[in-house]
Specification:
The structure is a homodimer.
Chain A: E1 18-30, E2 34-41, E3 44-51, H1 58-62, E4 68-77, E5 92-103, H2 121-126, H3 128-131, H4 135-157, E6 161-162, E7 180-182, E8 190-192, H5 198-206, E9 211-214, E10 217-219, E11 231-240, H6 244-263, E12 273-275, H7 276-283, E13 297-298, H8 300-303, H9 309-316, E14 320-326, H10 334-345, E15 353-358, E16 361-364, H11 372-381, E17 389-395, H12 397-414, E18 425-429, E19 434-437, E20 442-445, H13 460-463, E21 472-477, E22 480-487, H14 492-501, H15 506-519, E23 527-533, H16 534-541, H17 572-577, E24 580-582
Parallel strand pairs in A: 3-5, 6-9, 12-18
Antiparallel strand pairs in A: 1-2, 1-4, 2-3, 4-5, 7-8, 9-11, 10-11, 11-23, 13-14, 14-17, 15-16, 15-17, 18-21, 19-20, 21-22, 22-23
Amino acid sequence: MHRTHTCGEITENNINLKVALCGWVNKRRDFGKIIFIDLRDRFGLIQLVIDTEKLNSEEIKSLRNEWVIKSHGIVRKRSPGMENRNLKTGNIEIDVLSIEILSESKTPPFSIFEDNTVTNEELRLKYRFLDIRRKEIQEKIILRSNVAFQVRKVLTENNFIEVTTPVLCKSTPEGARDYLVPSRLFGGNFYALPQSPQLFKQLLMIGGIDRYFQLPICFRDEDPRADRQPEFTQIDIEMSFAEKEDLFKIAESMVKEIFKNTINEDVKIPISKMFYHDALEKYGTDKPDLRFGMELIRIEDILKKSTFQIFLDSLKEGAIIKAINVKCGSNFSRKNLDEFTTIVKSFGLKGLTFIKKAQNEISSSILKFLDEKVIKDLEERLQIEDGDLIIIACDKEDIVNKSLDHLRRKIAKDKNLCKEDDFKFVWIVDFPLFELDKENNTLSACHHPFTSPREVDLKLLDSEPLKAKAEAYDLVLNGYEIAGGSKRIFRSDIQKKIFSLLNLTDNDIEEKFGFFIEALKYGTPPHLGIAFGFDRLMMLLTKTENIRDVIAFPKTLKGLDLMMNSPSFVNEKQLSELSIKTTKQEDIHWQ
Amino acid sequence: MHRTHTCGEITENNINLKVALCGWVNKRRDFGKIIFIDLRDRFGLIQLVIDTEKLNSEEIKSLRNEWVIKSHGIVRKRSPGMENRNLKTGNIEIDVLSIEILSESKTPPFSIFEDNTVTNEELRLKYRFLDIRRKEIQEKIILRSNVAFQVRKVLTENNFIEVTTPVLCKSTPEGARDYLVPSRLFGGNFYALPQSPQLFKQLLMIGGIDRYFQLPICFRDEDPRADRQPEFTQIDIEMSFAEKEDLFKIAESMVKEIFKNTINEDVKIPISKMFYHDALEKYGTDKPDLRFGMELIRIEDILKKSTFQIFLDSLKEGAIIKAINVKCGSNFSRKNLDEFTTIVKSFGLKGLTFIKKAQNEISSSILKFLDEKVIKDLEERLQIEDGDLIIIACDKEDIVNKSLDHLRRKIAKDKNLCKEDDFKFVWIVDFPLFELDKENNTLSACHHPFTSPREVDLKLLDSEPLKAKAEAYDLVLNGYEIAGGSKRIFRSDIQKKIFSLLNLTDNDIEEKFGFFIEALKYGTPPHLGIAFGFDRLMMLLTKTENIRDVIAFPKTLKGLDLMMNSPSFVNEKQLSELSIKTTKQEDIHWQ
């Protein structure tokens, strides 16, 4: 056998034991008579000590960082004063009897010790196999494995069945683009990689599986965005004969278990609920970050009594006015405020209005338009205290919401209002079923076309579909949607109506979803489900903002694998077997 | 909440309890005054009793099979004599207070009760969501989930890390064809779906992950074969700093756990080992079924003393002669023997020779060519007893082996020599590293090009590569290879040499595996691994010979999804975005 112990597991209990260890040379310090080697494996680091008078070989002198060696030796206590308190094995060391080189190493293109941010990320991705050696990345990969196991354990204990659904599926493009796979046996025909196992999990419910889960890999051929990867993992859960309370319960106990058993955080359950409408009103978003205050407060009723003509005109055109109170914000510089204004302009807001209270004095560019009563009302409504900065936005509701939501989060970040270990969960409920696609003046699904309207709103589908609310439930954590759930439509006629309302022709419906509409007619149980974004959840658990950190072999923004140099050209024989021709041959410029 | 209990969990302990149940109408028997309904869910079946004098509604009379209902009622003991011993809930029934129809059902195109074999499989696949309701299929899906969980539990407890590797990979076609995925952002370039995560798992070892596992979905675009699916699942395990004994141990404890905790079978470990050479000698195959005897026995040394010219001539040309002794086979009819001859002809064997011993009399078409000594030697070597049939094959070694291996298994099947619950495992070791591709007179890898030669055989690579043996270990169960493992090459120079011996040009090596050859130079630990065919394992555990039975949504032999009608045509916009054109538009004739 190669080794008797891993580097990390040796303790003072092993003193005087003869051990065999394997690992990478993490560091070598050569003092002539004595050579120290820090030996590293996944489990830890231990100090080897070589007395060159007893053991003098050219081989030992040749050792370099990242070489792989095997060493026999005796565990002993370190001399007093030589302990390393930063190391789990810092009280002991190995008195080396022999060293064998298992594998040499070229000098790595970047240091295995250095902080993430030091090395160019493209270089790290090209040498991902070395990047993975770094503790920072390795810990995340290991945590991801732990979380996946916790998920499976909780769900299995609750009678859920893990079912693997196909990867070679049918193309039904809505919203996102499908990745396609040409069929060789049937030229001109294509499979598509699944954007989600939505239909399959519903078919499993029709099949009586009752409680299903899966950690499927899903695919969307979308345009590059920082927190997106062409392939991503969901935690996909579906259950029959259950109500939303059952779904909340299982999702919450899963989350609680994950946070407790991996990062030792106590999640308080039940998690509170917030209406979609209230979230937009108070936070300007359906993904509110509740770790800090600065809620959005409506003040158009107060400001319509001002004499500031711009507000008055906007109000007449249907604008709304909201404000946030930035505590201790009065000392923001002009530069800060200009930056805020620049930011909100990108959301279509024309400008911001500021009110400061400093040294008990109110100041504002619109002060002359506000009488005493207005100021008093504002002070009361916004609970203005000395040192506060009030930021006011006046425009169409969605522009105001987007702007203040963004500002609120930016200011919280700049002012460090969020503690690292603060995890604030909230369920958002009572979403609208549809939203208006203003460009085409058509309806689109707020969640997806399989989401059930509330029973009481069924009658609105024909008359006022935009007023219908959905049985949809999002789980939000610190401003991120980590899961989206809903009751599914289980009646064939309603499913067909929803497709029609979403502007699918009868022909489209038949071709893409005909079999599913038919399947619903064979005794479909009421069912609901939820899907967690596993990568996103891992980002939050490991406190990284780089999605590539939580994926073992990630791709770049543009979907390139810099290590394997993929995608790549393929040979003519492969293409002709698939009955396809390429219309372009784009050279990729690899690093 | 919809239900208080599942149908299967109610017992005599619940008598007098008011319960709410949901499920499918499995059967309805209408006796006018009383209606019985068997209500079914995943957990079991329970009898509902409706007293139509107390509860008479048109709705209840309208109920049909497979409708979904909810029922309130009181649990009560069945009247004496009315118990059903075949049912877990057979001593109780539900005195129904109310019934609510949740969902109606069209009449299913086949009965949910009927045996697999009755219904045309294509119809079952088209309506897979109904097929899944059948106990036979549902049990297999549930068992598969259990096995997957056991695998993860054992491996996690043994410090293995589950890592998900990419599905969008690079095309490196050897052996099997890749499924390709056109890149939209880089026209003319393609991803490939992975045939196995081989490179990734080795890169994880280079990255220091030490112990990895995954249940990856793998893809091979091969020609149709009965036990193949275009996508299939492996149990993929890799470990560093370990010897084959460590690998055997972890694989065996996993197998033991699976068989014990799912079908309550005790697997005796350690599992015995057999040399590849011995397996071929005794069983004619490297996948021997050890549940029965009938070993192949070499008899050319005896028969060269016969005067049967055909044997003598063949022996001169390098043929071998082997025989099997079929106990109690002397009563096989002429028709049986003719069938055997027809079978072996398909393997290239010219014919078989038979010797019978019946009523203590030896008979054979070649008897006149055998003297007393030869007969006595044969009787001794083959342990011929009264009633035995000896089948003799004389030809080139591989033809004899293939023929007798096939016959041996066929006869065992026909004579029911295998007990259903007999599981005979064996490790096959000491495989050759290469085999000769006779068509092209080139070498091909017996396992795959990453398999390490034995250390002692390194020197043979240049001189006599066909004599080099591999550090490869297959796990065989009842005649099926359920896992293939090997030590991997961890030296860059040897890996390159192997690729060269396999006739890859330097250019090919660089383009396809250049980055990997380079990766091996950065301190690669010695490592080995094994991959189980999960679908095959499930077939053996659930005793089915149909691979589609153990997959929730299988495809046909030709890769068609009969339920979704996939693959399918896609629209021009999709193709032009991907910079491809089709050269064929093949209509698929759906059922």
